[in-house]
Write a structure and sequence with these properties.
By secondary structure, this protein is of the alpha+beta class. Helix content is about 40%, strand content about 20%. It has a four-stranded antiparallel sheet. The longest helix is centred in the middle third of the chain and has 18 residues. The protein is globular and about 50 Å long. Bound molecules: flavin mononucleotide. The site of flavin mononucleotide (FMN) has 9 residues, from strand 3.
Length: about 170
């Protein structure tokens, strides 16, 4: 198996992170991988927001936790970086954003950096927080929250889960 396939197969979700911040160079490599994801009709609908500011991370933590219904938990597992992916609401925006998130998870794994998709970005962006964020970013138009990545150096390795059977068919 080549290195790319090995990276894809060895990726697992990380839910325990070191406090140490990921370097700017590593974040850029992950983000670039996201930028080069495919998008329907090449519309490039996704927008990538890298959040390392402590106050903003805490605001998102609280909001995401409140959507779950328990403000005391940290849905981002203490990750030093939160990457939020939004997409302009046109064409195949949900799929586009999902490809962006997946490319970034693979890139992170290739750098031995942990990642985990964290949900509820849609609800966040539908809230007043989302409207304020769009204003802060200078974005107008309709943007939908697709997902976040919790990103950081792995505190421990997560074992691969066995794959369910009977999910592949070869019709020759
Ligand atoms: C659309 C989507 C939403 C997810 N949301 C969360 C989440 O909110 N919190 C979380 O801990 N993991 C979340 N995950 C990660 C999955 O739980 C994880 O991918 C799955 O358990 C398989 O484990 P693996 O990634 O280690 O292979 C999400 C994954 C996807 C694809």
């Amino acid at each position: 198996m080549n290195e790319t396939c090995k990276t894809i197969i060895n990726r697992t979700s990380t839910r325990a992170f070191k406090k140490e911040q990921v370097t700017d160079e590593e974040i850029k490599m992950i983000v670039d991988a996201g930028l080069y994801a495919p998008s329907g009709r090449g519309l490039q609908t996704p927008v990538i927001v890298v959040i390392t500011n402590d106050a903003l991370k805490e605001e998102i933590r609280r909001l995401n936790a409140s959507i779950i219904g328990n403000e005391t938990i940290d849905p981002f597992y203490g990750a030093p970086v939160i990457i939020l992916v939004l997409a302009k609401k046109e064409g195949t925006f949900v799929y586009d954003g999902s490809c962006t998130l997946m490319n970034m998870m693979i890139a992170a794994e290739s750098l031995n950096i942990g990642s985990c998709w964290i949900h509820r970005a849609k609800e966040e962006m539908d809230s007043p927080f989302g409207k304020e964020l769009l204003t802060k970013l200078g974005l107008s138009g309709e943007y939908v929250g697709i997902g976040h990545l919790a990103i950081g150096y792995k505190e421990k390795e997560t074992p691969l889960k066995p794959r369910k059977e009977n999910r592949v068919f070869y019709l020759k």
